[in-house]
């Protein structure tokens, strides 16, 4: 890897870009080409990187670094065959270059040849000064293979050499989680804390493990230490608040969520958690206030829309519930809950024509719940669309041939269409206890005497 000061770095770039504006080809040494290509790769300007490599490889055809850079670009483009040919050339020029084996490992991994990738990475270790990076890559390959014991061992190697390598720590904790080895994870975290007692990441992860095991007091202590280590650590406040909720310390939970909001930009998730706390306290007005904030800053936050609609619906404020359900659908597309809830609200306020639209939409979105079919059939019966209702019933019975509520409605439709004998046949096929329940529906109670 090149270590150039800013002047050494920018001068070749300026010279190269000035050259491109003319027909003249200037000479650059191989290191200058390397810095030019790396610059364009880092800034995502692959066309210019390719152009620099084209000129550079003509001027320095036996330079392994330029060949490896070209191979790297080919891997990025998915051209593994050409990349492998270049890697063969690079290996002949510099057989002990770690990058040859790292790139081969990348190709193998992208081709889902993970054991082969691991072998190349182990070969790269023989020539590398950066063991941690390669150990981490080997660990990742084992994670992909879901072979968590060797993955764990390689991430442990990383942490033994650098106890504050947080990425390896997260990967190691994931491996422990998959192995159901929480004691191993706790040992690792305690080891990290021995090296750095104020490591907020380790305290935070320790809190999560204790929380998962319902050791809430220990979890709270861990989160408190995370906050002492870094008073701006938002995640610790949020996790602490979630524990306080579980311990029914709702006001304290709200305080911690508020601190998290004050530290970072507002979060729909945190607003939603505060709203839930106020719901527990019985303050729907405050819950609505925070849910409105959640959906205002993140209109695609479906949970916020669902919960605000639920509150209005429970309070029988159907106008507001319908308004927010419709806005939620506009913001989130085909949200099944909001579509069904819109239909239910419209049914409740006797706008049956409009309710049909939402129930049909729910069915088109592959929701085949019996209650949706029941509501759709009821809407059509109320509107005296008996033939349409019969067609819907026939479709519903294909999906739910033993659904008693749909069979009952089949009997009702037969009565409406004047087919009394068929109607009685369907009624008689049903359990009498269930029939009593269906007759209690005000929509059908007047038909009881017919049977």
What does this structure look like?
The chain has 451 residues and is an all-alpha fold. It has a domain of 84 residues: Serine Threonine Protein Phosphatase 5, Tetratricopeptide repeat (Alpha Horseshoe). The chain has 26 helices and no strands.
List keywords for this structure.
single chain, about 450 residues, mainly alpha, Serine Threonine Protein Phosphatase 5, Tetratricopeptide repeat, elongated
Offer a concise description of the structure.
The protein has about 450 residues and is an all-alpha fold. It has 26 helices and no strands.
| Poorly predicted runs | 1-7
The number of distinct helices, counting runs of at least 4 residues, comes to 26
Residue fraction in strands: under 5%
CATH class type of the domain at 368-451: Mainly Alpha
Anisotropy-based shape: elongated
According to CATH, the fold-level topology of the domain at 368-451 is Serine Threonine Protein Phosphatase 5, Tetratricopeptide repeat
Mean pLDDT: 91
Largest sheet: none
List the helices and strands and how they pair.
Elements: H1 6-20, H2 30-42, H3 46-59, H4 64-76, H5 80-93, H6 98-110, H7 114-125, H8 131-144, H9 148-161, H10 166-178, H11 182-195, H12 200-212, H13 216-229, H14 234-246, H15 250-263, H16 268-280, H17 284-297, H18 302-314, H19 318-332, H20 336-348, H21 352-364, H22 370-382, H23 386-399, H24 404-416, H25 420-428, H26 432-439
Helix pairs in contact: 1-2, 2-3, 2-4, 3-4, 4-5, 4-6, 5-6, 6-7, 7-8, 8-9, 9-10, 10-11, 11-12, 12-13, 12-14, 13-14, 14-15, 15-16, 16-17, 17-18, 18-19, 18-20, 19-20, 20-21, 21-22, 22-23, 22-24, 23-24, 24-25
């Amino acid at each position: 890897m090149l270590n150039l000061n800013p002047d050494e770095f920018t001068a070749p770039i300026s010279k190269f870009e000035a050259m491109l504006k003319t027909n003249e080809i200037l000479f650059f040494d191989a290191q200058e080409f390397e810095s030019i290509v790396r610059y364009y790769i880092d800034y995502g300007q692959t066309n210019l990187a390719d152009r620099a490599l084209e000129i550079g490889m003509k001027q320095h055809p036996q330079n392994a670094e330029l060949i490896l850079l070209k191979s790297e670009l080919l891997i990025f483009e998915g051209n593994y065959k050409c990349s492998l040919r270049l890697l063969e050339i690079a290996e002949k020029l510099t057989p002990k270059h770690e990058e040859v084996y790292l790139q081969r490992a990348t190709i193998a991994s992208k081709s889902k040849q993970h054991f082969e990738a691991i072998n190349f990475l182990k070969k790269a270790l023989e020539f590398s000064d950066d063991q941690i990076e390669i150990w981490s890559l080997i660990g990742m390959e084992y994670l992909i293979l879901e072979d968590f014991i060797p993955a764990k061992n390689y991430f442990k190697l990383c942490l033994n050499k650098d106890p504050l390598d947080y990425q390896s720590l997260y990967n190691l904790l994931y491996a422990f989680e998959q192995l159901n080895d929480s004691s191993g994870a706790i040992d690792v975290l305690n080891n990290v804390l021995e090296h750095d007692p104020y490591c907020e990441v380790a305290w935070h992860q320790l809190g999560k493990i204790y929380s998962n095991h319902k050791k809430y007091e220990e979890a709270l202590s861990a989160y408190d230490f995370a906050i002492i280590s870094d008073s701006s650590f938002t995640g610790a406040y949020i996790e602490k608040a979630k524990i306080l909720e579980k311990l029914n310390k709702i006001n304290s939970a709200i305080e911690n969520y508020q601190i998290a909001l004050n530290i970072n930009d507002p979060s729909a998730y945190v607003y939603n958690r505060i709203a839930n706390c106020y719901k527990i306290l019985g303050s729907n007005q405050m819950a609505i206030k925070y849910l409105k904030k959640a959906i205002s800053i993140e209109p695609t936050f479906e949970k916020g829309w669902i919960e605000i609609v639920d509150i209005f619906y429970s309070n029988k404020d159907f106008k507001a519930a319908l308004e927010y359900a419709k806005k939620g659908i506009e913001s989130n597309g085909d949200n099944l809950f909001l579509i069904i809830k819109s239909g239910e609200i419209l049914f409740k306020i006797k706008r049956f024509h409009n309710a049909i639209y939402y129930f049909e939409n729910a069915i088109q979105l592959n929701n085949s719940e019996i209650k949706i079919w029941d509501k759709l059939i009821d809407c059509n019966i109320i509107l005296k669309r008996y033939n349409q209702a019969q067609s819907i019933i026939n479709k519903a019975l294909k999906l739910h041939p033993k659904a008693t509520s749909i069979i009952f409605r089949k009997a009702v439709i037969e009565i409406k269409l004047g087919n009394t004998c068929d109607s009685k046949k369907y009624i008689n096929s049903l359990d009498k206890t269930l029939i009593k329940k269906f007759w209690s529906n005000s929509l059908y109670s007047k038909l009881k005497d017919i049977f």
